[in-house]
Amino acid sequence: MPDTKILIVEDDKSTSLVLNQILLKKNYSVSAIVASGEAALYEIERNLPDIVLMDIFLEGQLDGVQTAEFINERHQIPVIFISSYGEHRAIIDSKINQPFSFLMKPVDENELETSIQITLYRHKIDSILKTSERQFKMLADFSPDIIILTDVKLKDNIYLNKDELFGYSREEFIELKLNNLFFEEDYRRMRSYWRKVNRSYGKQPPSIEVRVRCKQANEWEWINLRQSIIEKDKKGRKKLLLTVVNNITEKKNAELDLIKTNFELDNFIYRASHDLSAPLKSVIGLVNLIKMEESEENKDKYLELILTSASKMDNYIFDMTNYARNNRLEIENESVNFEEIYQTQVNSLREKEGFSKIQKIFSLNQTSEFISDSLRISILFNNLLSNSIKFQNQSKTDCFIKVVVNINQDFANISFSDNGVGIKVQYLERIFDMFYRASENANGSGLGLYIAKQITHKLGGNIEVDSNYGIGTSISIMLPNRIKFISRY
Predict the structure, then answer these.
(1) pLDDT tens digits, one per residue of 262-306
(2) Over the chain, what HEC string results?
(3) Does 317 share its domain with 431?
(4) Does one domain contain both 125 and 149?
(5) With bands split at pLDDT 50, 70 and 90, how would you rate the model's confidence at 342?
(6) 50 C-beta neighbours (distance < 10 Å), count
(7) How many CB atoms within 10 Å of residue 306?
(8) Which of 167, 173, 243, 421 sees the fewest Cβ atoms within 10 Å?
(9) What pLDDT score does 106 carry?
């Protein structure tokens, strides 16, 4: 092989001359002949050979084995050892970490050529494998997915590209038992999945969506799991298993939100059509009665009933508009004037039945400008003030609604408290559900508290209700001050 350069490292001149003659006869190129390990390292730095013929015992401080180790560390050049003693092979095998070839002196030229060809071929294959392994590791390290290589026979993960998985360290994750890692219901499905994996060797790997237990208590994440057997032993048993894990928690939550949204939309359309058509039919019926009625007094009663039905329909449309606004409009970050919002909403409710009978108290304690969405907060105030007026306790002479707002640079804490009819304990869990009416006497849309909760969550806050039937209701709302959000832009 004319392009192959070979370095001879041999302190016996007669042996080195014989090796040189054989190599030249076989059309190899001898880059140099040296007698010590130190000289070999110098020569390799000056003129890289393709292969090294190495005697074990050399002049100088470095023997052949030590020299070969240095060569492998710095240049990964294959070495063929040459020795007069066969037992030296065991010595080399115990000290050197890379593959090598071994020839006995005197060297047979055919054995030498065969050894050179085999060593070069093995080195080429080894280089390709190392390059592939390096490329795989680079791809895996940069991959957002979790990639695991498992030696099935040894039950050992030989490669894991992440240091932290679902809150567990690499070591903690490897020690986890599968039945503790997966959601119980999903673990039963996994058994069927593994049977598919066993049958999929050489085919498209199957996938499954399962939940994984996070280290933090009561937290789960959704993953897409793909496994494939990429190597089998001679008996056809799986040997090497590749696992790719993709975190799909956001996607899964989006799917669940979509299912919830579709359900709410279906429910909304059904209820809206029903609750709008009822007062409309009532109006139509009353109009027909007026046409047939001769008594002016009865006509006036019918007109009052028409007005009631029309007002009910108008209130329902108002609630639906607020629902749509909260769902569709982006958050408008602006300075919020709570006192102005309160007064505006109180004035808008003046025509509401029972408005004049209830005392209205407002208190504001503000130490910082508050940035949020004024429109949504206005809707929030309107719904909760309206509820307190609507559900005041008619048996009491001192009915009140008290609104207290405390604002600092971080939050706005808002409380609405009244001494109205209150809510029965069995209804409290569902008061924020769409179209749910907690009172037998309620004639509203059933959207008020639902919208209040949706607005609060949209603005990044939370809402809590405490109520005692016959005593009154207290609603606490916490909204974050978005002034810090604005300051970042």
Answers:
(1) 776 666 665 566 556 666 766 777 677 777 777 777 777 777 777
(2) CCCCEEEEECCCHHHHHHHHHHHHHCCCEEEEEECEHHHHHHHHHHCCCCEEEEECCCECCCCHHHHHHHHHHHHCCCEEEEECCCCHHHHHHHHCCCCCEEEECCCCHHHHHHHHHHHHHHHHHHHHHHHHHHHHHHHHHHCCCEEEEEECCCCEEEEECCCEECCEEHHHHHHCCHHHHECHHHHHHHHHHHHHHHHCCCCCCCEEEEEEECCCCCCEEEEEEEEEEEEECCCCCEEEEEEEEEECHHHHHHHHHHHHHHHHHHHHHHHHHHHHHHHHHHHHHHHHHHHHCCCHHHHHHHHHHHHHHHHHHHHHHHHHHHHHHHHHCCCCCEECCHHHHHHHHHHHCCCCCCHHHCEEEEEEEECCCCEECHHHHHHHHHHHHHHHHHCCCCCCCCCEEEEEEEECCCEEEEEEEECCCCCCHHHHHHCCCCCCCCCCCCCCCCCHHHHHHHHHHHCCCEEEEEEECCCEEEEEEEEECCHHHHHCC
(3) no
(4) no
(5) very high
(6) 19
(7) 19
(8) 167
(9) 87
For residue 397, which amino acid is it?
T
Q: Which residue has the tokens 């710095």?
A: 74
Residue 323 has a CB neighbour count (10 Å cut-off) of 21
Q: Which of 247, 265, 280 is the last residue of a domain?
A: 247
Q: Omega before 106 cis (within 30°)?
A: yes
Q: Are 56 and 74 within one domain? A: yes
What CATH code is carried by the domain that includes residue 122?
3.40.50.2300
Give the tokens for residue 413.
Answer: 């804490």
273 with 354, same domain? no
Residue 168 — φ and ψ, nearest 5°?
Answer: -90, 145
Count of Cβ atoms closer than 10 Å to residue 278 Cβ: 14
Instruction: For the beta carbon of residue 142, count every other beta carbon within 10 angstroms.
Output: 8
Given the structure tokens 């007109």, which residue do they identify?
303
pTM exceeding the 0.85 threshold for the entire prediction:
no
Give the dihedral sign, CA 139/140/141/145.
positive
pLDDT digits (tens, 9 = 90+) for 29-66: 999 999 998 999 999 999 899 999 988 888 888 888 88
Structural domain harbouring 116: 5-138
Do residues 488 and 345 share a domain? yes
- In the block, which residue shows the tokens 């003030």? 385
Q: Is 175 exposed, middle or buried (0-12, 13-18, 19+ CB in 10 A)?
A: exposed
